[in-house]
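New to this. Help decode both lines:
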Amino acid sequence: MGSKRTRRKTPKETPVVEIPPPEPAPPEERRAEWKWIGVLTLAAFVVRMIALGRADLWGDEILFATRSTPPLNASTILQMTWEQLLVVTHLPLPRIIQNLFLWIFYSEGSDIAHNAFLQRIPSVLWGTLTVPVFGVLCFRLLRRRLAITATMIMAFSLFPVFFSREAYYYAPLMFFATSSLALLAEVIEERRLSTSKSALLLLSNIGLVASHLTGNIILLILLLAMLVETARIAAKEGRAGIPASTKRSAAFCALPYLVVSPFLHKLATHPTQLRFPPGPSMAEIIYDLVGKVFAGNVGWANVLAAAVFVIGIISFWRERDRSVVRRYVLIIGVVGTLVLAFSASSTQYASRYFASLISFFVLIVVAGLDGLARLLAWTVKPLRQYGDRVFLSLAGAFLAVHVLLFLPLYYPLSAKGTNYGAVSKWLNEHLAPGAPYLVESAYQLRFISGYFPTPGLVPASPFVHHGPEQLPELRESHRKFLLQFPESPWIETARHGQLPGEELGSWTWPHRHFRQRVDIKNGPLRRMSNLGIWIQQYGSRAHDNTLSTPIWYNKDEDIDNILREGGQRVRLLYPGWNCAQIQQGTYGRISPAYPPEIRVRNLTGESVKGRFKCTAALLAPAVEIDTLMEYEGRAILQTRQWGGRLWTLDSEPVQVEPGEHGLTWKVSQEQLGSIQGMVIVDIQFVEE
């Protein structure tokens, strides 16, 4: 049986198929596009500059400013970022760029850390530059009128304008994310990228990962998209058909991770010190987010926003022109939204974490308005021949709401959160020198007294809590301090115990203890909150503590009445004494002069007998000192004590008559020169 010899076939080489690039737009059309982009960029700059310095820097802006303002330098900022990474988890590039900009205006003695206008200029520039880059992307992906509308929305709508006027990480993040997306869209569509644009892509990707952790997530998605595009071309045309620009762009999406790899490795191998209460679900996050991008979190507006986004995603997918690059952009945006929403649901949510996807959201808004217009034109017979006009009407209404309502409400803000500056101003105007005050959250002393100074006053923090389980201890420490220093106001800045996971409810003891209350209100912020357009926080309304900060306090006669109601008949007053921290969590009173005097006030119309029990120390060298306590000129306690050491002693009985009387300490004339003052940790009048 003969065998048939099989001839081995030589495999055919896959021919390299040159895909011609899209026909370039006519020169006059390109010039018209650039005119639109130029005009809208200029308008975007103006919109972002209006009343830029009116609002004080708010909490996170203050931290950003104090950690990036000269005389700090780039090297110090890099070191600080590394050391604080597990506490703050921020990356260094925006602060370094901010620092380099501020050095232009820095001179010895200048106070640019408190110059809100100057601190926000870099963000304005980043936000403004995002507009032309986005415009280029729009004219690549959308029909002309849609591209112009989308660029207008990026220029004028509240979400991008807000984060372009905030001295923080998100304006550069918006720019780098938009730039990277625009350059990769050009690679996917044209299969080529010039050397200069390749360098821009690499720099933009580095900026993206070095600006924020969310930028690392977005670049990873862009890298996966380029790998998919490479595999798609290889499957269709063979490996030889993969353009060099595609390979290079994929590599340029991977290389930036080398720059931030030490930071990512530290975060991956060490537990962070951040703890968060349970956040909203992914669905709630996305619903909240689309409302903030569209027209706020008021019920009907949120429903309309969700409908527009769904229609926009469908319209964007079904558009036939340039379908490949459009679908890549859509998939990148959808995947990015889902990944960031999942991350936020398990850590902490704020709409600003999605700033890297602002270009995607604006594209979907425009596609949604266009799809809605076509749907209305198809559904309503009289509108069928006016589809374009329906779109222009919807887009015009959207822009009019933002430009004529939302932005005019936003510009008058004097504070973009808790009004720490106004709180400090009230304290400076109403408290006596040396008086203490107690802020509900010790962390906010970084702002009250720290950034907005209260010279001559004493910000107290008897206990710093680290979680909800320590709230009972925090409240007890505050109660003891306020009883020890009845002249101290209590500033209710945080509403501890009312957040999810802190089921203790409001602390009502101060509400009963204090007889006076003043509210530091933020009217413009309340108006924005009522419309559901306050971007900083989840949900339709801002938290109460950002809209109004209560300061609880007692007047002198209130303190007398409270003591009487508690059964006390004698009150001690400390004119000229200052509150002082003796040791961590322990406070007393210090007299900067010697001999000090305490006023003894009889709260009744009757004579009261008792003793003074005192825990005190003389601010003096460690030598024995003879000291004498006198009441109304009569010696009631004579003792020899070592300077600088605490002693606790009882006086002889005294008869406190109605009215006010003096209680003083004296030393010999020879020893008087060595005494710098006196500290009292506690003094009580004990009735007999």
